[in-house]
Amino acid sequence: MNSILADEIRNTYIKTNKIPFAYYIAVIIFAIINLSACTVSSVANEEIKIVHKEIGDEITLETLDLKIISAEEKQSISSYYGSTAESAEGAKFVLVVLELKNTTDKSFAFTPGLKLVDDKGCEFNSYPYTIGNIDNYIENRKLSPNIKEIGYLVYEIPADSSGYSIHSFKEDTKELYKIRLK
Fold first, then answer.
1. How far, in Å, CA of 76 to CA of 38, rounded?
2. Contact, 62 vs 175, CB < 8 A?
3. Taking a C-beta distance cutoff of 8 angstroms, is the pair 144, 153 a contact?
């Protein structure tokens, strides 16, 4: 009697709950999409032109002119009115001084798409806790048309990184700028 009841419950569950089947279909679709995305990105990577630059070289992007003036390593950062921040254990800060000029006809806030890439290929975004720890911080600064602005971006990277560069991608020309800092 229990086995008949169990068979009826199982058959009813399979008929009314199509979750297992839908789950497998979703997994298959997800795999197909990801495999095709990998194929597309590998083809797109072949079309990217890498442009090597140095500190002091000016780069014209879609909405602004960018020049890295200098870069230096520090264990701590501080501002006149703010507090001091120490780099994490086994890490160091890289302070990058940028000169930016908005080349559009409207103001906008600078949100950097600039990645710091070290000699091991690791990518780093700008340090998120900088605003109260450094004077003249440039991230999110409003850039007015045709007016040059100079300020800092800060990155926190492993202390053993011996070489690194800033990467910026120019979408319309498919150029990847690699600006060597060290």
1. 40
2. no
3. no
